[in-house]
Each structure stands twice: as C-alpha cells, then as structure tokens.
Specification:
- With 245 residues, the chain is an alpha+beta fold.
- It is built from 5 helices and 10 strands; from the N terminus they run E-H-E-E-H-E-E-E-H-E-E-E-H-H-E.
- Helices cover 22% and strands 31% of the residues.
- A hairpin with an 8-residue loop joins strand 2 and strand 3.
Length: 245
C-alpha cells in the first residue's frame, strides 16, 4: 500500500464544486471513478480544498491510497488519458503514508479576476467577474493592506460557515491591473467559506468609492457579515495552489 499525491488543475464551470454530493457531478467524484477504473480497485481521494461550484483550480492537492504496482509518478500520465479535458493532473508522486493535505502547515493562494471595462468580453466570461463601474485600483490596494496579518475574519465569511474559529492569517494580498483585467491575489494560512469572494467584493466597494480604505479596520472589528461587501460570483476565483511548510 502506498499513498499518492496529485496536483489537480480544473475548469470548475461544469462541476458542482470539489466535494462529492448526491445526484451531481463533482471533481472529486470524477477523480474517484476514473482512478478506480484505472487501478482496478476502489479509490477515494482526499482533497486539500473543497472548492465551490464554478471555482477553478491550477493546483488543488489530493491524496489516495493504492495497492497498484504502477509507479506513483506515472499515474498522472495514465490518468490524464482517461479524464475529461477540463480536469488535468499536473503532478503525481508518492508521499508518506500519514500525509494528509488538510492537516499540514501550508500557505494557500487564490486569485480573483475582475474584468473592468465598458462591455463584457465573451472569452473572459467564465473566468472573471465583469463590472463596467470604474474601479480605483490604488484605493483597492490601500484597503487590502488592512487585511494583512492575523485577524478575526468573521465579517468576511458566509453565515453558513462552520468552523472552530474564524481567526485566519493573510500573509500577502496584492491588487494588480493589466489592461482591463484586475487581479486580486491572496495568500493565507487558510480561508473560511466564501472568504476570498467577500474580501474582493469589499475591496470593490473601496474601488468604487462607496467606502474609504481605512474602513476595513471597522469591518474587521465588527465581526458581522452585514458590514462587509457582497459575495462575488464563483467564476472569477481560481485556487492557484499550496505551499507546504
């Protein structure tokens, strides 16, 4: 028996998130079915991040146990021949038997893309959020700076969040603009349910001039979801990857 780690990239448009759910297709269900067929045994992967419906990934992590004799580093090649085109394995390798992708110290990075121009551009529609309202990127940067560090992010998570604590650490948050695309890149110790989408929604409020950047401190201290901005759509969000420490 060996434990194999996969680095998984996927376009989340046609999937109901990562985690298995009844009567719908998810990334996890497709991986389990495809791996089981390839290795001729029942496989159940354990994912690092349970991304929501419509969220994309360049480097989600999953592990599974197998008795198959195929070398771990070759599984990616065989698996990619069987997977649908919107899921691809970027790496497969053997890891320690007790390696668990959610129980390791790690840094996790997300990017959220905003298309900010007069009219929607069709090729970006599945991978960004469109707004014609002109955003002040410098004000968004100023607002983002207040979120760096360890804080209680209760104002920035869904009321449906189930977590022992809403305290998280953001190591870095950057707001960059290239042409008509604004990219918000957030690296943290972990994220609450809808946290990144709410953070970016709140930064947009600063970019519109609806709130002053320094109000981010008040929003954090309120610990009340109603004080933060809207939850943006899933399509603009991509899990970039993990760095295990």
């Amino acid at each position: 028996m060996k434990r194999v780690m996969l680095k998984v990239a996927y376009d989340g448009t046609d999937y109901h998130g990562w985690q298995i759910q009844p009567n719908v297709v998810t990334v996890e269900s497709v991986l389990n079915e495809t791996l089981s067929g390839l290795l001729k045994e029942e496989i159940k992967v354990i994912g690092a991040s349970r991304t929501d419906t419509g969220v994309h990934a360049l480097g989600n992590i999953a592990v599974f146990d197998t008795n198959a004799r195929i070398p771990a580093d070759k599984i990616s090649y065989a698996l990619n021949q069987r997977l649908p085109e919107d899921i691809r394995i970027q790496l497969s390798k053997e890891v320690a038997p007790d390696f668990h992708p959610r129980h390791q110290n790690s840094k996790k990075t997300y990017e959220y893309k905003i298309l900010n121009c007069a009219f929607p551009v069709p090729v970006y529609r599945l991978y960004s959020y469109f707004t014609y309202v002109k955003l002040d990127v410098e004000k968004m940067r100023q607002a983002a700076s207040y979120l760096v560090g360890e804080h209680d992010f209760k104002s920035f998570c869904s009321t449906k969040t189930v977590a022992e604590t809403t305290v998280r650490t953001i190591y870095d948050i950057r707001v960059e603009k290239s042409g008509e695309l604004i990219c918000v890149r957030v690296t943290g110790s972990g994220f609450l349910y809808n946290m990144v989408r709410i953070i970016v929604g709140t930064l947009m409020e600063a970019g519109k001039g609806s709130i002053a950047p320094e109000q981010m401190t008040d929003i954090l201290e309120a610990c009340n979801r109603e004080h933060a901005g809207p939850t943006l759509p899933a399509c603009g969000l991509t899990l970039i990857g993990y760095e295990y420490l």
